[in-house]
Amino acid sequence: MSDNNPCVAHRGFSGKAPENTLAAIRMALELPYVTWLEIDVQLSRDGVPVVIHDYSLDRTTNGHGRVKEMDYANLRRLDAGSWKSKSYRGEKIPSLEEVLELAAGRAKLNIELKNVGRPYPDLERRVTELIASKGMREEVVLTSFDAPTLRRLRDSAPDFRTGLIFDARWSSPVRPMQQLGCSFLSIKGARLNTALARFLTQRGAEVMAWTVDKPESMRRLADIHSDIMICTNRPDLWGETFWRQ
């Protein structure tokens, strides 16, 4: 068994199953070394938190237009699997509630709130209330690229752990993390270096590197620090690289 570099399944086992679907979540949870899932959450027009990455429906479903323009009942009629493979025809866009219930007690969740530009003024409240109702505050971290989203979470739900998703090429995430009250950093794997990883981990922060699908890149991150979480579309390759039973 590996005690190092936790494995995070990016949008579930998205290398093989359609991303952000229950099929991808279930496939990831079947692997004994997957301890985290990373998913993306938006709101339907009638305010239901749903798990989908793009603001548009076009890439990963047979629907068209924007997620926020369609009621939950209509989103559920869409096919979110056939784009990946005919064997996944009929796979649905999951609700966040379904994913929470599936993952409870089995894996922690890194939930990215897709709220840049605030297309969903009620997103933070809807998500935090749902998580709290399931008693799962301790099993999730809420992350975002969007500083205003993280500020609203800090002010309205201070008992939730939050994380900054950081992709700026020439600056450091340390100051914005401190200003936003974040204890979690999600950063592109190629941009993570030893000094930053050590600085943050020594101060109790968690660091997740994304999206890492090559064994040599996984090993490079493991050599930097054993606590770096490795977020991958291919958790099976993480297993081949690190898992010892």
Automatic annotation (TrEMBL):
GO molecular function terms listed in the Swiss-Prot or TrEMBL record: phosphoric diester hydrolase activity
Signal peptide: none
Residue span(s) of domain GP-PDE: 5-242
Pfam families from the UniProt entry: GDPD
Biological process according to GO: lipid metabolic process
InterPro entries per record: GP_PDE_dom, PLC-like_Pdiesterase_TIM-brl
Gene3D superfamilies membership: Phosphatidylinositol (PI) phosphodiesterase
PANTHER family named among the record's database cross-references: GLYCEROPHOSPHODIESTER PHOSPHODIESTERASE, CYTOPLASMIC, GLYCEROPHOSPHORYL DIESTER PHOSPHODIESTERASE
Name this polypeptide is given: Glycerophosphodiester phosphodiesterase
